[in-house]
Amino acid sequence: PHSRGRVVSDKTSGLLVAPEDNISELNPLLRLPKGMRRGYALLPPLLKVLSDRGPQNWESEAPRLQPDSRALRYMKRLYKMSATKEGIPKANKSHLYNTVRLFTPCSECKHRHGDLMKGDVHSVDLLFNLDRVTALEHLLKSVLLYSFDTSVPISSSITCMCHLSVKEHDFSSQVCPSISHAIAFSLHFEVRKRKWVELDVTSFLQPLIATKRRNIHMAVNFTCLMGDPQQNTKLENPINMALVPPSLLLYLNDTSEQAYHRWNSLRHRRKNPMWPRQRNSLLVDPTGGKGKENSQGKRASRRR
Amino acid sequence: RDENLKEAPATPPYNLSEYFKQFLFPQNECELHNFRLSFSQLKWDRWIIAPHRYSPQYCKGDCPRVVGHRYGSPVHTMVQNIIYEKLDSTVPKPSCVPAEYSPLSVLTIEPDGSIVYKEYEDMIATKCTCR
Lengths: 304, 131
Prior knowledge:
The complex is a heterodimer. Chain A is built from eight helices and eleven strands. By secondary structure, chain A is α+β, with helices and mostly antiparallel strands. In chain A, the strands form three sheets. In chain A, strands 4, 6, 7, 9 and 10 form a five-stranded antiparallel sheet that branches. A four-stranded antiparallel sheet of chain A has the order 3-11-5-8, with helices on both faces. Chain A has a two-stranded antiparallel ribbon with strand order 1-2. Chain A is globular, with a radius of gyration of 23 Å. Chain A starts with 7 loop residues before the first strand and ends with a helix. Chain B has a three-stranded antiparallel sheet with strand order 3-6-7, with no helix packed on it. The two termini of chain B are 30 Å apart. The interface between A and B is large, with 42 and 32 residues. Strand 3 of chain A pairs antiparallel with strand 7 (115-130) of chain B.
């Protein structure tokens, strides 16, 4: 099909839709009834690859940007937690999301501020490009993902103050972007073996992502000290650690037909008495975190 | 059936159960077949990070003339068989197709270097039917 006629991508859903005028050239099998064609997905995203990338032009494809190895490691771990060895989404996971996207800040920014990362006060400028998020992917949760290097002693108690601000590009003045809104919070955590810290910035980024903003420009000031104010230990000797600029993690619910809708299959199970009943409460954490659902899940499994 | 038995004296008695089984379980009937591929075979492993293996399975086999509840086929399937046999043989017989699927989680690298975990619907055939 890619040799016959030009196919355009549908901006709203990001999927391929053949233009009206040469629909007649498409293979009759691929043509949808007239009423359904407008803005509707002809092919699911994975199959879109089949139509874009036939074996003969695989070699000619433009090289992909390689992701950061830490980010890759984090996503592989998330995959193992969310899917079985055969690649099937884990049934007992009550998470609402069916899509998770990890963005690393654009390389120019990283490069420009690389040397700022040493010392105890970290100020970093982050620009995330969210072009890949489609119109049918709805935000459930957004997290800034920090990874520490090995110089920080394990199981040390660290308190960090984080000042986050979003920058708006005011095109009238080319000199510098203005700050639209800012947030400051303090974060206490124990550095564990895994050396990842997730900063939940959902409420902070929600208005931006809801307005389908494609570029998110943030400034993050990060100061970390050893100790835990709640344990009345004195905050002392700021930590001199190298912080890799954080990645942005978006937990999304894709409402397109090709995406797996856990609730549909659960409803289907409920209709079909052959399948064991499962009690799921809609009030669970979108990422399936600990909480009362788990104990319910356990009770249900025990009863089963 | 008695003639058949008579005709097959050469079958040694000890695999009689095998002999009878072919009548209980018809051969080549519609059923789910295993099929397993790895994305490296398709040279897709550059951008599909997980899973390494994917078992889509497939359905193959003959559809019996009278499709009963065994396949969960709708009544229309029998009607189609009657149309094929009695009215118009250009109308195809019912086909052996997947009836149920399970989803698949895929971890991919996007062209811009971002990483996406997505759960896709209906990616693995788990049950077959005739319709």
